[in-house]
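Q: Structure tokens for this one, please.
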Amino acid sequence: MKFSLSALLFLAVATNSASAFSTALFPEATSARQQTFPTKDQGEEIELPNFDELFGRIQQVSPLSRLVLQDRPEGPARGFAAMDKSSSPDLKWKRVEANQRRLVHEIEKIDNFQGLSAPILRFRSTIEGPCDGEAFASFIMDLENRKKWDAQIDNVYEAYTIDDMDMANMAMGFNYGDCSKMGVGHCLTKANLGIDAREQLTICGINDFDDGSCIIWGTEMEDRHNYLFPPGQRVTRARSHLFSTTLTPTSADSFDVEYVVQLEIGGSIPIWMTTPIVIDNVKKMFDCVQKFYKNTDGELAKFMAEKAKRQELTSGPSFLMTP
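A: Here is the predicted structure, written as tokens:
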């Protein structure tokens, strides 16, 4: 299965909290912190977000990511067992579901987070299988895997590739693990039952950590980046204001997942209609992910073999591996 880092798109819901995010994710052009990177083949300069702000936001809404990025527990406990769930006491999460016997055993939300119309949703699950973030991300970014659980997906692909990972990690200040993939993806959903199609343009990536954990992250590009859309007629814009999926191993054959997603779906569809659909879709995704990681049809073994071949072909010196 060929994997491309495209959009961690259209799996999200929006956000509002007692403490506002005060810094823009994409600084204005006059800001000294603005950074752009050339794409691999497409000849475009891609503006990068403020990574300190991005990962700060992720840690505020995802205690598991905070554990991976900051706390690094020394004891035997890992994942949710080692997590301080009160790490963001100013955020008032509302429990939607909780059942330890289910695959997705906890769902929470905050309505109108950051003054936006849709809620932020947080899902927690424990998966049987090896902790591999690239494999997990393929269920969001790879069209064929996406079709297994998302009936509305029309297309999702990596429109622009940022392939110089040494420079990407330098842009992050070497503070957030090892960024192994980064790109800008375009996602398009089908029109259905009188609801028109939706599209997104999202920058996203995968950051890996020494303990086997990883953070899959994404955020919507700004309106000033609309020139990056493919040619053709535009449809209603949806916006993933924040997306993160943190995976951390709890044993050699299991890992915990905290999936935080924020989508402003656009148009005039009421939130009370879209939120249950998003929750149901995320559950379907986790069902497909668990089947994959159990290797019931050999797909995990095939993926890992192909990944090993890719890594062998692309391996080389890195700033992160200097003595």
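A few notes: The chain is about 25% helix and 30% strand. Residues 245 and 259 are 4 Å apart (CA to CA).
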